[in-house]
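Re: duplicated header lines in exported structure tokens

Our pipeline writes sequence and tokens for each protein into one text file. With two proteins the header for the second block appears twice in some exports. Here is an export where it did not happen, for reference. First protein block:
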Amino acid sequence: MSPIGILGVTVSSCAVAYSVIRSSFWIGRKLRRFSRRSQHNGGGNADSTDDPPWSVSRHTKNSLNTRLEMSKLVKTFVLADEKRVGIEVHVTNAGAAVTKLLWRDADGVVEDVVLGHDNPLMYLDNACNAPYFGVVVGRVANRIANGEFTLDGKQYKLVKNDNGRNHLHGGKRGFDRQVWSVVGTPTSNKVKLRHTSKDGEEGYPGNVEVTVEYALAEGELAVTFEAFEASQPTPINLASHSYFNLNGHTLAAAAHVAGDARNGMLETVLNHAVSVSADSYTPVDEHLIPTGEVASVSSTPFDLRHLTKLAERIPHSIDGYDHNFVLDVEASRQGKLSHAATVKANKRRIDLFTTAPGVQLYTGNFLDANHTMGKRGVKYPRHGGLCLETQNFPNAVNESSFPNAILKPGEKYVHRMLYKFSNEL
């Protein structure tokens, strides 16, 4: 799903800013430890929590002290596969983001195969994480035309954060820019996060509770979204915005360390083979808003029913994908998992299943190596990653023929994803 513009702020400058704040926080924490030890004459245990500083979002108070205090809310959790060594998932409550996915292939090579940031606080910042790396987006993922909809006879106007024209991924302060709370006690392979969305947040009606659970077991990552306790009818469409690149970061990071700027770029995903289990898709206008039509993929560049190398389609028959594909809608109505997509590259394979009626295939068309610096100093070029965002159809709240997008009081929204990871010889 294409992001809003970088607004003239480079991600590399964000990294420098966060590095400075992190250093300030570390020094301040050391001084506080020393002070406590002096006051208690060495008694008691020093604080061992290595909390990073919080967001430099334009929506926080412009105070370093405030950011440092807020940083105590940000945590990172490491999920390990106890029965199958070789898969490790890192999750932060900053935007409920997946920050790392470490994957050991059949040859024993470990790669981080998701795009993102080294510092979890960067996921909270509108400028630094304009591409929405790894986060959960909502209240409504994807676009709402003209940033408005009518519900029960009342018109609601939302924040227009997509070039001032449409509403995108829940607005400027959507779920991706929130510090989520932790539900219960995380385990070695599972964590559940929760966010309370207030009435009027980014223009949406009513209060609503949302959770996301990440659970890793036997080579599979299960992601479960829930929304409940809506105080009044409201649109809901939650999605994960992870970018995958099965080439990994190692070679590009080594080139960056060696000072090779050109080869410090991540290899693109054009060498990836992709299939999508969809006989139809939803065509869009020039602003990426669905026209309301559901069209057959036959004899079009959108026919990905069989594994196809992206390089065979991009840029020859299409400049890049940023489109919603129609999955098994009937299975979705029944809450059943169905196959959404498969991705293969470098002896690694992902099979994605979902209960959602659609999946947005986005091939990183708006990534720019001049502005998008990621983990380990690696630059992310155009087509440097691909997203498979299982979801309701974009702008469904304004299209009566699309699947229902409204959560009513007393109802529960449930959206499940299942990633199956496998190695190929």
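Second protein block, exported in the same file:
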Amino acid sequence: AALTPTPARARRPFRARSARSNAPRHMSLVRPRAALTPSLSATTTKSCRDRAPSGAVRPSGASSSRRAAVRARGAVKITPASDINWSTLGFGLTPTSHMYVATCERDGEWHDGGVVPYDNLSLSPAAAVLNYGQGVFEGMKAFRTVDEELLVFRPEQNAARCEEGAGRMSMPPVPRELFQKAVLQTVSANRDYVPPVGMGALYLRPLLIGTGAILGLAPAPSYTFLVYCSPVASYFKGGQLTPIDLTVEEAYHRAAPGGSGSTKCIGNYSPVLKVQLQAKKEGFADVMYLDAKENKYVEEVSSCNFFCVKGKTISTPALQGTILPGITRKSIVELARSRGYTVEERNVSIDEVMQADECFCCGTAVVVAPVGSVTYQGKKALFCDGKVGPVGQEMYDQLTGIQQGRIPDERGWNVKVPNDYHLAK
């Protein structure tokens, strides 16, 4: 069940483990890497090597050429940070040099595995995450400041949400201290991949999954917690703060009362792709979903929370079990109230949205995205002449100013990443 790190030095041929090996049979890294990058010390290299199996389990009858072909297909190409063109960066996966891995058995005791080279995973076809979708994830960002410091935005909030999600999915929660340590060490080990100031951020993906093999419907016997990352820039095409066009979906719903809509579980996201892909074919950037009970109250856009503005009042759908409690959403609510706006968390009807002065979305990936228009039942409402609205611009400036260290962090939202923190025990 545990994910094990690859051998740290010379490549070794795949062979069945010995009876004395403690390495789990169903979870390992696919391809050994030649060595850790120079940023990791010899001490870290040794600790990774000591935890690694001598080789991943493969069918004993496989030929050496077949095994070599499997390794070649599973190879991960890592782009050196020095080769990245930051000016053309979008929101796509750029594998970085390292990730973080920890494991847990059924007893709930987590084993801190530490930083390992980024690579593919190998696990049993009967793994709970593959068969029953037992997994949750988080989305976070780290930023570089003008003083070359690295800041992670509100990691304790993500740790708390991950803990709640684990409970909903019947998984052992990752201790909050371990969660934050894993995030900070992942950023530290991938320091060179944090984009320059104002050119993006390092997106972090903590992932908790049931990797233990199980046939019947039940919690997995073991779990893996890992954190990987990728440098990113604007989420939507057109660049940051380019107004997006939304269409309202009436036939499909993202979540229902009593379901898992408020949990960031892996099964909540792929069901929206059918509607989202069709919307993009019709020229829309994304889809707005209504409540499943009355089909008239706004809930979320596919991957972000929603706000609308009327005068000095900002309204956003209330958290009632079907909407993800976004960290960015929470931050916008706090910032807006501190700047004199009335913020209402309540049921927001689609009719009210169509009459709003301004609308915008927010989330870790999208940051603050102004809504240029909303189309509902064939009618199109245009906001701010299709340009960035004043409230959305203000919230974006305040939020990103704090995240990038340009505005004083009076609330203590940022956590500084210590230099070489990934080398700490």
